[in-house]
Amino acid sequence: MLAQRTLVVALVPYAAWLVLDYDYHFIDGVNLLFHEAGHLFLTPFGKVLHFLGGTLGQLFFPAACAFHFLREDRRFEAAVCTLWLGESLMYAAEYVADARAQLLPLVGGHIHDWAWLLGRWSLLQHCEQIGVFVHGVGSLVVLGALVAAAQRAFAPAPPSPEPPAAVALGRD
């Protein structure tokens, strides 16, 4: 319980930073690995799923971890993984918003996933607004997950079961 409370306290400034001033950081290296894996797994299903696969891959893994912990009734851990999902949405938001400017470095190719996708869907001129929207969704996920984790960590401990009443031994 103390470890959970300590983690929640540590996550508060991190969540605030994510919502108010997100920038690429250490967790995004992990997200990038899952992003590239998503491309690899979805390549056989056509170009749209190949390009969308990166973002789907980076969102799938934290969501799968959260689902796993929910199935195990480990709600605190599920909330932390859901916070990771929200952070990954923010990472995706940066990538979406960059589709027109293409200032972010690309890994493994010269085609910007979201420039290709949004161009195909005639939405490239709206990439910044779409990125802001995705960041907003990610912010809501992060804040909701933080609240859920805090509720679990700071919930009063369930009462311990009372020992059975002593049985009076009587003499007849």
Describe, in plain words, how this protein is organized in 3D.
The protein has 172 residues and is mostly helical. The protein has one domain. The protein contains 6 helices and no strands. Helix 1 runs parallel beside helix 4 and helix 3 runs antiparallel to helix 4. It is elongated and about 75 Å long. The N and C termini lie far apart (50 Å).
Annotation keywords:
172 residues; mainly alpha; 0% strand; elongated
What's the SSE blueprint?
Layout: H1 2-21, H2 26-42, H3 47-71, H4 75-97, H5 113-120, H6 127-153
What class, by secondary structure content?
A: mainly alpha
Strand-residue proportion:
under 5%
In N-to-C order, the SSE pattern is HHHHHH
Say how many strands there are: 0
- Count of domains: 1
Mean pLDDT: 92
Radius of gyration: 22 Å
Shape: elongated
Low-confidence stretches: none
